Amino acid sequence: MKIKFLFFAAMLVSLNAALFAQADMKEIITMIKKNLATSKVDIKNYEWLETTTTFVKGEQKSVKQNQCYYSVDGQLTKVETGGSAPAKTPGGLRGKAIANKKEEMADYVKAAVSKIHTYLPPDGEKLQQIYSAGKTSVQVLDPGKKFKLNFPDYNVKGDMLSISVDKANQKLMAIDVSTYIDDPAQKVIFNVTYSDLPDGTQYEGSTTLDAQAKSLKIVIVNSGYKKAASK
């Protein structure tokens, strides 16, 4: 009898936790959408430096820096300001083979960076659609304070976008994405850490992409934020 009572009590606690999590999830969805919308507008008042570092098999291959700002028509503009010079390729057949591999990797890196930007920043309405379809799940990181919401099939079938939030402080903490570039069997994972500006505007402070099938790692860091000269 005691065992049955304990089992029932455990089930009740689990059910209550699930109900609280669902209630939290609805509130968090609203908070995420509001945060994304506000930051999307406020970030246009700033300019910053974007540094992209590429590693292949653990070895740093390139560094590229862009000055970023929004033009008067609201378009994000990137002006290359520096970076590392590409290594010289030897001549002959061996050099040609190396050049071909470099070109293939350069194309893949370009596709990977473009893929990142299809997820960042997340589209609030798309998140709402996934939630309304009953596909969103929630993980409790810190009861009543921090949660992680998972949005499957965000861009393509089989991908997953997850957003970690600090509900107590109404802040986004991180984004994790599992997706692919051109082959669903070759998973690509990237992680984003959010940072705050003094006025409360949130931005993607750092993004790290890992494509294990290609032994590729890309790290994008946004820094040096300041009010745009024209603002």
Summarize the structure.
Helices cover 33% and strands 40% of the residues. By secondary structure, it is of the alpha+beta class.
Description:
The protein has one domain. It has a ten-stranded antiparallel beta sheet. Strand 2 (59-70) and strand 3 form a beta hairpin. It has three helices and ten strands. The radius of gyration is 22 Å and the shape is globular. It is of the alpha+beta class and 231 residues long. The longest helix has 41 residues, at 2-42. The chain starts with a helix and ends with a strand.
Please specify the SSE layout and strand pairing:
Layout: H1 2-42, E1 46-56, E2 59-70, E3 76-83, H2 92-117, H3 124-132, E4 137-142, E5 146-152, E6 160-166, E7 171-180, E8 187-196, E9 202-211, E10 216-227
Antiparallel strand pairs: 1-2, 1-10, 2-3, 4-5, 5-6, 6-7, 7-8, 8-9, 9-10
Helix pairs in contact: 1-3
